[in-house]
């Protein structure tokens, strides 16, 4: 009998793209498997009039999908890993982390080439405290305005003239065919992405070995090592995707390198740290300790 595997997914164009991407990889790895999407709405999608930081609560984009898995209405869920809380809900696991796409943030504008060439007092749209802190550090004069909604909505608000520029993740833009809108990739040393940005993860119940085993073929070991280091750093800072914490781990012949920063969205103060190592978890905790030594706790209100 062919097994049917149901993937719970949010309904945004990006979430659907990512879930289709996972479905295609699953079908390729398991030709007999019948894969279906179960599109659902989450609280993070529905509450658009307040910033995510203001709504608070972890896992705003996950809860409804997890309930569907617990009810047995879906076997797994697909997420942008950067939206997944550092501590998973008990009873769940991440059986696959797919190969990372572009990790960088993108500067997007119809009129300007980069952050430094924006005119004095220009209006930049982003609701991310991490992006706000880094913008303030580079350009204290900018006027930062909230910008919520899915990628397509945010681009439409830029085009409507509400902002001089906005900042979005390159990965989402590339996945949705908007690569041409990227005016500049924002990269180190000036700029770091969110922990796990650009990585897609599959979540399932941890008591479901039949589903878990299907995903072994999709897991990308190098990406997993990098995002584990980034998430371990954020976890040690008690971070979520709604705090001004940025991190990027890279792998080369000599091992892992992790760079992190913590900032203040209010005044643009930033503290930075970086180290090399082999064990992702220990490296993440080491860089977090260095950040705390330099005063990150004050910036995070710890
Ligand atoms: N918080 C929203 C979110 N979650 C994941 C992505 C796309 C990038 C990714 O896969 O990491 C985005 C949009 C954005 O930040 O521009």
Automatic annotation (TrEMBL):
Tetrapolymerization of the monopyrrole PBG into the hydroxymethylbilane pre-uroporphyrinogen in several discrete steps. CDD domains: PBP2_EcHMBS_like (cd13646). The keyword Iron-sulfur does not apply. The porphobilinogen subunits are added to the dipyrromethane group. Its EC number is 2.5.1.61. Monomer. The keyword Glycoprotein does not apply. Keywords: Porphyrin biosynthesis, Transferase. This is Porphobilinogen deaminase. Its cofactor is dipyrromethane. One of its GO terms (molecular function) is hydroxymethylbilane synthase activity. It catalyses: 4 porphobilinogen + H2O = hydroxymethylbilane + 4 NH4(+). The modification S-(dipyrrolylmethanemethyl)cysteine is found at residue 241. Belongs to the HMBS family. It comes from the Bacteria. Residues 5-211 form the Porphobilinogen deaminase N-terminal domain. Pfam families: Porphobil_deam, Porphobil_deamC. The gene is hemC. Residues 225-292 form the Porphobilinogen deaminase C-terminal domain. It comes from Novilysobacter luteus.
């Amino acid at each position: 009998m062919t097994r049917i595997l149901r993937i719970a997914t949010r309904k945004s164009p990006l979430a659907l793209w990512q879930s289709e991407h996972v479905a295609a990889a699953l079908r390729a790895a398991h030709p007999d498997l019948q894969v279906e999407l179960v599109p659902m709405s989450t609280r993070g999608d529905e509450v658009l009039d307040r910033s995510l930081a203001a709504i608070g609560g972890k896992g705003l984009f996950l809860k409804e999908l997890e309930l569907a898995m617990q009810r047995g209405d879906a076997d797994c869920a697909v997420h942008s890993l950067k939206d997944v809380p550092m501590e998973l809900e008990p009873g769940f696991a991440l059986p696959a982390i797919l190969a990372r796409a572009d990790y960088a943030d993108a500067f997007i504008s119809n009129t300007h080439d980069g952050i430094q060439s924006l005119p004095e007092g220009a209006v930049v749209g982003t609701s991310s405290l991490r992006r706000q802190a880094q913008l303030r550090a580079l350009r204290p004069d900018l006027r930062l305005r909230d910008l919520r909604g899915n990628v397509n909505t945010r681009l439409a608000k830029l085009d409507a003239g509400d902002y001089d520029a906005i900042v979005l993740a390159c990965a989402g833009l590339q996945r949705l065919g908007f690569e041409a809108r990227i005016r500049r990739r924002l990269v180190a040393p000036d700029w770091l992405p969110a922990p796990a940005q650009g990585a897609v993860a599959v979540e399932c119940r941890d008591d479901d070995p039949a589903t878990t085993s299907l995903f072994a073929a999709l897991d990308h070991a190098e990406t997993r090592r990098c995002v584990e280091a980034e998430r371990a750093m954020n976890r040690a800072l008690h971070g979520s995707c709604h705090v001004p914490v940025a991190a990027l781990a890279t792998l080369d012949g000599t091992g892992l390198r992790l760079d992190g920063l913590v900032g203040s969205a209010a005044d643009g103060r930033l503290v930075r740290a970086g180290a090399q190592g082999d064990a992702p978890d220990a490296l993440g905790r080491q860089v977090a300790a260095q950040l705390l030594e330099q005063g990150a706790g004050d910036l995070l209100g710890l």
